[in-house]
Amino acid sequence: MVEYYDNDFSFEEHQLEMEEKLQSMPETAEQDTIDDDEHVKLHPNTQAQCWDGFHTSHSTGNFFKPRRYIMKCFPCILDHCATEDSTRMERPKRLVLEVGCGSGSSCLPILRNCTENTIILACDCSAKAVDVCKSVVQSSTDAKNFGAFVSDPSLESDESDTSFAQDVKRAHVQLMESETTTIDDAVGLADIVLMVFVLSAVPPKRVPRFMKQIFDATKCGGKVCFRDYALYDLPMMRFKETHSINSTCSDADGKTPRLYERGDGTLSRFFSLDTIRDIFESSGFIMEELRYATVFNDNRKTGERLKRAFVHAVFRKPQD
Fold it and tell me: Cα-atom radius of gyration of the chain, to the nearest Å?
């Protein structure tokens, strides 16, 4: 098996280099701060429409290649799904839940590596993304243990008729067909929750609600596998200040979230370890792994070596 490396360079040295670069840039006029609730660009409906537009433009699903590294950087997925549990008489199959599935690039490696005892549910706020994900999975592998549905955990209770946990349960019942699910709505179903490049797309003020619903949908003892953009990642350094959005929220260092708007209107936020720790622990999760992942990406056409920086983490929901 090919080894997976995600410590190609020192994040601390990269941080110092990028901070010097930022300090050398000319100052730009400070933008007005608008309350997140009043910012049209930060409304869930606006973001869902932007992601619909993105996935309409990349409807073949080829824009993102399958993330084969998922199983290597999160071995707990295989470990957790392979462990027998004699107490699980009503729901013998393990459930992996991907939140923010996009075109299905994370689902495929899991489906191809997990056993028949594992089912995968994938969701996204974008109906078009869910359609693309279903199409990609069904055309690439056996999809009998796979289901996808539209849901947005960032929605408040008065913005949706159902909670995220209820959406997960409904999708689970539909996938299992003849098998019944008698577990109460208040009990989380997911053994593993996969959050890969999704929290960065959630408006900062809605993150607490988003995380509470993730917590509720996770089984006690279940784990969240997390990977997202770190501070000083290449795209952050390429964004122009005119694309930054001043949120009224704060990161762990007291500064406004490093939040940017892409050309298509979708959001991109960049995190520190402290901010991710605060977000998860304030939601009730227990940290198991948390570190920066640094990766060299080689551009074969130009010969350029690009530095990418991510936050890698695994958090666990405590037992009752």
Answer: 20
Per residue in 220-259, pLDDT (tens digit) is 999 999 999 999 999 999 999 889 999 889 999 999 999 9
Task: Name the packing angle between helices 127-140 and 44-57 (round to 10°).
Answer: 40
Burial of residue 237 (number of CB atoms within 10 Å: 0-12, 13-18, 19+): middle
> What torsion, rounded to 10 degrees, do the Cα atoms 174, 319, 202, 98 define?
-40
What's the average model confidence in pLDDT over 56-78? 79
Residues 6+ apart with CB under 8 A from 158: none
Nearest to 195 by CA among 317, 305, 110, 313: 313
Angstrom distance (rounded) from CA 123 to CA 129: 9
The answer to whether residues 224 and 280 touch, using CB atoms and an 8 Å cutoff, is yes
> Which of these, 264, 295, 210, 238, lies nearest to 58 by C-alpha position?
264
Q: Provide the token pair at 266.
A: 């979708």
Whole-model pTM: value is 0.91
**Residue 73: which of 254, 295, 298 has the closest Cα?**
295
